[in-house]
Amino acid sequence: MEPVTPPPPYSAQPTAPMAQLTTTMAQSTAPTVQTAVPLASPPITPGQKLEMVQAELEVAKIRLRQQTRERQGLKRVAPSRAAVLQRLAPKVLRQAPRPTLERMPGQAPELYSPRLDQRRIAWNMILSEAHTPSSCSMASLHKTHHYGLMLILRAVSVSAMHSSMQTCIAVEDENGDHELLTIHDFAVTSHPSKAIQNGSFFVVKEPFFRTVLDEACVLCIDHPSEILFLDANDPMLPYAWRANVIERSPTQWEQAGNQALKGDDPLEAERCYSRALATMTASQAKDVVGGIVHRNRAQARLCLERWDGAYHDAMAGMRDLTTTNDDFADFQNMKALFRAGRAAYELGAYDRAHSAYTSVTKIAPDDIDGLRELKRTEARIAEQLTGVNFWAATGPQAHGTKVDHADFLRRTEARQTDTHGRGLFAVEAIECGDIILSEKALAFVPSPAVPESFHLVIPPAATRGTFGTQSNMWTAVIQKVLANPSIGPRLLGLYAGPNYPPLDSLDIPMLDGRPVVDIFRVENIIEYNSFGYAHDPDLTSFGNAALATPGMDNKDGSMGLWLHASAINHSCLYNAEHSFIGDTIIFRATRDIAKDEEITTLYKEVNADYETRDAALRTWGFSCDCKLCEADRTCPATTRRKYLLQQAKEVLERLPILNATVEPRSVVMMFEDLLAQIQDTYPEEFYRGLPRLGLITLNRYCAFAYSRNNPDKALEHALAVIAAHGYTLTITGEDIELDRTNAMSAPQVVDQLMNVSRIQESKGQMAVPSGFETRYGKLREHRSTRA
Ligand SMILES: C[S@@+](CC[C@H](N)C(=O)[O-])C[C@H]1O[C@@H](n2cnc3c(N)ncnc32)[C@H](O)[C@@H]1O
Question: Which CATH architecture has domain 250-386?
Fold first, then answer.
């Protein structure tokens, strides 16, 4: 079978030995950056980081282009083994402690992200040109190299760290040609030894070289499915390499698996159990010993968080009770059911978990563990219908990073929109303030433990680099989907940017027993769909901000990917606002939402200046067509407003100096004058009923300035802040009505509403506590609950 889309890096004409490949394509892997900053240096701001990232990107690309020109079309001369090992040596020496590539249960995500040498500001990696994974099985490939072909290689060194996300190792082929091989860490994670050992054998499917900055060319593997490890006695190996290993019996493999499981090595245990099953006949696999091996492999897979496989193994490990009726068989089935229940629970398949635990309680009605798990699962099933009250009794802070609650998604569904791709729609009316949905992340990564250091991943053709938490997210998502291919259809159904049209089939194909995942598509999915935790806890409307790191931008701070919520499109006049509790995202309605109305949210804080706002949204590949953007685009005064807003910004920056040198009253008068001019740039025919964002900041300042000695003026400016957010406040006698149709909720609105209430109280007009105050009280910490 030929690959559907020929990957660009392959040379068109395969030749014989590895040594004769030519370098025709500019593929690159940069060396790790040597920029050293002393440990005690002050923290680097996101802005400075971005500058460094851009500078590095430019330097790397210039050097790369130059070297590519020099090498274009050159016949490759195979380096000697000594030369290859010499190239590898410095990497081995400077190697930082390798991460544990497989995350163990209960281990916090940051512990398995690569630990960084703190003296380095960045570990960078320039990617290959994006290409699809090989779609060929081993049996369909010829035993040599390049497109349609494969290489069989032997490692001749220990592996070293090539970049923050790549391993490299010296290899040889059966002709005795030597090369350096770089492997994306994703591809190594499922290898039993967790790193490639000296002397190990493997097949590389459709291999290619890429040019690197400091070391001629290297063979490279990006997609995890393109490397397959072979046993020492595999018949595919050249005769001279093959070891005379005596094959173990199924029972011996099973015992080796048990030993590994006891020794806390679930990866090796899984490999041994798989070998035990592979060496059994079909009928053996179904009998008692086969059942034991399946159940044990289920346990190993639970430890590896391979829930899909764990569930199937556990179910395969069930003994048929119609033919056997003894206590031991019951005991074995309870084991299988507990394992199936746990795997299903972790996958969020609560109906399957419920059925497993119900069966447990049928076998042993008084089993405490069975009853507890059944109750827990029933609570999750109820939450899917009713939602979760995260604030009940203990409050949001009580939930850890990994929230043990079910998703609440039934009020919304994804549908096709006319112009924005898929969108999320309400299937029932939702009241202002109500929870629209809550969802656990497919993958969640907290901000790096060492914020001063960061990964930098640079696709060579792109103008953007990926850094910070986002590169850790990439690893987390790939690991999750490799371990649980059943997630594939929901993940691959997400928008992946303009270069990745929707797939015909969303199932993850299996080839040679391994899931085939296109890591470049997944990287784009993360880029377009993940949410970053707000970096300013003060701007977080509700939920806990513990995972947000002040001073970090989204790419550096905690972030996650939510499959259902990813269908939500942007609108500056949004009707939903999100926050986070642990790894759960929660959307609430900021106004009443009608049945069948589209749910929209803010992708980026809305800037009063249209050009700035539009530029930010264009990074997602669109221009917003909400009424506010439409007004800003067509209103002739938008340019003048930009000029005035710049003036206001400059004045505000000079505020401390002004306050010290000028009579405060004159500053306020200057602001009022500017406000009047900005107000003129919002003609009523364009902005009726819409927010006027350029009026917010200065009105807030004036409301504050007047709050001590001029309650009427303070009230006027407080009401102006509320109106500038798009709220229409109508006061008729004692009735106050707030029209939220085009409003933008914000903590400042809550502040100003409370200001209004205070001012009225000071004027002797006592407000009757209602709504917000009866629900949340008057305490300042509750200001975070939005209007
Ligand atoms: C997280 S996805 C949202 C779901 C997406 N529409 C889909 O089809 O799956 C983000 C992408 O949706 C599109 N999008 C979101 N809001 C939009 C808007 N207001 N106008 C046009 N496209 C929008 C953009 O292509 C953006 O990169």
Answer: Alpha Horseshoe (1.25)
